[in-house]
Task: structure prediction
Amino acid sequence: MTDPNTPPETMTGAEMVVRAMRDQDVDLLFGYPGGAVLPIYDALFQQNSIRHILVRHEQGAVHAAEGYARSSGKVGVVLVTSGPGATNAVTGLTDALLDSIPLVCFTGQVPTHLIGSDAFQECDTVGITRHCTKHNYLVKRIEDLPRIIHEAFYVAKSGRPGPVVIDIPKDIQFASGAYSGPGAIEELGHKSYRPRVRGDRARIEAAVALMARAKRPVFYTGGGIINAGPEASRLLREFAQITGFPVTSTLMGLGAFPANNPQWLGMLGMHGTYEANLAMHGCDVMINLGARFDDRITGRLDAFSPGSRKIHVDIDPSSINKNVKVDIGIVGDCAHVIAEMIEVWKERAYEADAAALKAWWGEITKWRSRNSLGYRNSTEVIKPQYAIERLYELTRGRKTCITTEVGQHQMWAAQHFHFNEPNRWMTSGGLGTMGYGLPAAIGAQLAHPDALVIDIAGEASILMNMQEMSTAAQYRLPVKVFILNNEYMGMVRQWQELLHGGRYSESYSAALPDFVKLADAYHAHGIRCADPARLDDAIREMIEYPGPVIFDCLVAKEENCFPMIPSGKAHNEMILPDFSGEVGNVIDAKGKQLV
Amino acid sequence: MTPRNRNETMKSHYTDPTEIQLPERRTYCVLVDNEPGVLARIAGMFSGRGYNIESLTVSETEHEKHLSRITIVTSGTKAVLDQIEAQLDRLVPVHRVVNLSAKPAIERELALVKVRGTGEHRMEALRLATAFGARPVDATLESFVFEITGASEDVERFINLMTAIGLVEVSRTGAAAIARGSEGL
Result:
């Protein structure tokens, strides 16, 4: 990168932070100032190449960076102060760790000589964030700072992506030293951290041979495909096309395979479709590409896909055989491995067993005809599923990014909003963080100024990071908050109905704000709709409005999110929407202990 | 689906629930960068994921490269032990993880054992110490401190015998281990 003969530039630690960000192609970061990061804020003030987005709460900064990263494929950057700044970021960091989102989070720290003295706004940031980051650093010497920053970006984005924290004491920000660019880590790699990108050829060949013999195959894809970049999604489409195998995906992988493709089975797992789950249960060869056999996917482990041979492609070796023991584990990046799989398939002129595949598709078609996402619509009240369906229909043909909060609305969005492209769907999957959607929408909107960005929310979740409406207003970000307002923490209420005899302990959203007035207060536009007949017009009004909108969509209050695999049950024990029994009896005592 | 005979058709990975996987003991050698917090990362990974540490020994072994060698004795079922290996390997400052239980290896630990006794007890303590190759490193007219180095089981047996004679206290290191033969890690 830099000429070794030119003397290194000398600058302060704060200037190094800004300079290193520039060398890492950062054009935007999310943050909140405070005493321990003032020198960095001063350095930001004196330049124009990096834009700082001021959030209203540090948790919002991290989720916004996640939305930015997930929708753009770049590293999200966060800057917060010491103490409460860092502790407020913890939820977002944990969220990014569980969903493998690449982030670099700079935290201020009290000066080195005060560390350990319980100084004002001091906390053990590296201690606290050790468990919720992929890696973290406390910078104790100015000489180490440039190397650490570039290393942090490398660790965040390579291998299985994740959040990295760099804790910088205030005296280090003021200290001056020699800056060095990212050349060393980019050329030589890390001394101990060396992720494997290419899969083992012999295993890939064995996996493809197994696929060619399959009679009832299924692709089970996940967020790893999204993280591997758009090329991985393209390769998945090609591989599915040449094999003719059905494809399902986890919540995190939606969009990698187009929902309008006939080979698409819909999402799998706890609220997945009947056809996806039964295909998983009955398959003879399962090809897991970048998913991690999460408990929301597998249901009861000892009854999970009992008759199948399993292939698992994952960039993280610890994911393989963690929850489910597989026959062929391949450590590698999805894009590289799928490309090689296609190569082997073509080289050996494999052909899928057409007769067996036809019979398999016959079974799948039968399961599909159960219409597991069906619901009874109403002319009196807006059904939440209907609201999502209309939102999908009325936004078709546009570049639309969807984020969500967590709960029923999130599952309905995953079921009824159909994604045909990767990086258009941002949701908190692993951690299940209420309050994720609005800041994530802000991040996605900043990455895609031309896109229609909608946070599909619940009335309870949205209140968790409502303050970020102020951020949207400040930067004139036209994000749309589409609230499915059923006046309950819907998923909690549903579980209480299923598990606790309908005793709705503390799950009613009492004393809700008037969301239309709230929109007004936040310099946004407010819309309320309770009438199914008026819904389309109201949604159009939201889409057309040039600024931020809060849409208060009053929906049926006690609608359950089906289909559902009750906790402790297997894929073939789903509750379908036409279930006529007593829902309070479907979960046994053992299942009740699970989450 | 028709019931299948597990062994005939597919090798199911789900073991019969009546079949219990027995926990086994395993020794890992972990080569890490000797940087602040590295031990907390290792120990935190064990506690955060609910794994056992039976003993842990750590010291910088290559000063010029700032490399420390950690010997961890842990226990669990085979699946858990394999997961521990993968999780250790995933930590950024970890260079290598080697399962020393999978190869011929030597494991040693050191103990300082304080024994109180007079007359015949004192003589017996000394005789036993000689039999075990333990060295007296401190003595008064009514006590000894022995230094013993050996496999964990030998150290354990020596301590048990001393208990009968008049054990006061023990200070023990964890195991340090190394593979046999000419090859390094």
